[in-house]
Every structure is written in C-alpha cells, then in structure tokens.
Design goal:
248 residues, mainly beta, five-stranded mixed sheet, four-stranded antiparallel sheet
Length: 248
C-alpha cells in the first residue's frame, strides 16, 4: 500500500501485538530446558520494516496434494486412529490468510517420533514419518489427514508425560507472521501436569486446544478436529520462540 504525500513514500502495514498478559513466556521454570535457552533480558519489540512485512515466495508447485495425507507413506498405511485436522489461518483482523505454508510434525500413535533423539521403547511405525504440509486456499483453509499421536515421556520431571499434540509451523503473508505452536486435543487428562501447556497464560490456553467436530467426522473412517490459527493480534494463537530443535 502506498500513500500520496508531498514526498511519495511506502507506507508499511502494521500488525496488532498481543497483550503482555497473554504472551507465553520464553522462560518458564517448570519447563526445565527453557532455563538454558531463554534470554536473560526482556525481549524488545522492534518496529516493522520492509523486510519484515513483505511476504516470502513459497512456491505452491512444491507442495503436493499427497503431502497433506500422513496416513499413506513409505509404501503402506499408518497404524492408529485416523483423524482429520482442519481449520483456517487468520490475520490480526480475523481475515483469512491465503497462500500460507502450514507444516506439521508429530509423534506416531505409540507416542514416538521418527527422530534420532527419540529412543524411548515405543514401536516405530514403518509407514508413518509424522510430517505434512499444505498451502492454505483462497479462504485461508487447511486440512490434514493423519493419526492421533500418542502421549510420551520426556524427562522434565518425575513421571512426566506430554499430552497428545501436533506441532505446527506457519508462514503467513510476511516473515513476521511465522508461527511455531502446538495443537492439543480436548479434555486431555495430562494437561494438569504439563509445563509446556501450563506456560500459556490461563486466559489463552483454550486457543491451543482443538475442537471435536461431529459434523466433519467421516463416517467409518476418521474423527475430525477443528483448529483455527491466528497469526498475530489480540486473539493470537499461543506460539513458541525458536528452540534448539527438540521434539517436545
């Protein structure tokens, strides 16, 4: 968007920032590894400049339709409860964000990642790699067919188990609209003892939990869970800071 003034200049868009009280802290004592990677000083919000608000070129032709189906990989069918995970990607004004790259990664139905760092004694599924990606359509919609991930131990504290969750990474229409987050499932009994979930301020935790949809559930095939993702603003989905590549 440009403005007509005595001196022609580019007018950059501005994105609403979430309120401080609903921001997920970058350091949370109960989540032990944050003590090693969280900054010691309060992060400073910088002004948005041209490089932060111009969109990345993702190349839609690089994302194939089969990338959204995690149940058929490596010459076979994944084991576990099939689920349809769908929703919309929205900006700070509630408008759909088309052309956003949505990537997911998750554990298999036994709660194990196909990752070198994951060596707890749960079986690996030879037909499940846990990776998927789609580009949102003109209405900001995304959809994945996958299996419900299992809970797994992660060593943060005694008898620590992560609730079932799916990791999301998104690029919106600008580099400042990158979001890394986790989607949880409703009524999980492990919420109460999970420091990552509880690091989210209580008033914002519901934004990280999907909603079961009987309407979209596919008869005799897959349960459906709806989850909208807000990139920025007062209703922003809780997101994570850049981490060191762990799979928690």
């Amino acid at each position: 968007m440009t403005g007509t003034t005595s001196e022609s200049r580019l007018i950059l868009p501005r994105y609403l920032r979430e309120r401080a009280e609903v921001r997920t802290p970058v350091g949370f004592p109960d989540y032990r590894s944050t003590a090693l990677r969280a900054p010691l000083r309060t992060p400073v919000d910088l002004a948005h400049r041209l490089t932060e608000v111009t969109g990345p070129v993702l190349g839609e032709d690089r994302v194939r339709p089969e990338d959204a189906d995690l149940t058929l990989r490596l010459g076979g069918e994944a084991i576990g409860q099939r689920i349809l995970v769908y929703g919309r990607v929205l900006d700070s004004d509630g408008r759909p964000v088309p052309g956003a790259l949505v990537e997911i990664w998750q554990a298999n139905a036994a709660g194990r990642y196909r990752h070198l760092a994951d060596d707890w004694p749960a079986p690996l599924d030879p037909h499940f790699d846990g990776l998927g990606r789609v580009v949102t359509d003109s209405l900001g919609r995304y959809e994945f067919l996958t299996v419900k991930p299992g809970a797994y131990p992660w060593g943060n504290h005694h008898n620590a188990w992560r609730p079932a969750h799916i990791h999301f990474s998104l690029f919106g229409r600008a580099f400042t609209q990158r979001l890394v987050t986790q989607m949880y499932f409703p009524d999980d009994p492990l919420f109460g003892q999970d420091p990552i979930y509880n690091a989210i301020p209580p008033v914002a935790r519901h934004r990280a939990v999907s909603r079961y949809s009987l309407e979209r559930t596919q008869d005799n095939w897959a349960l459906a869970f709806e989850w909208d993702i807000v990139l920025r603003g007062t209703e922003q989905t809780p997101f994570e800071t850049d981490d060191d590549g762990d799979v928690a």
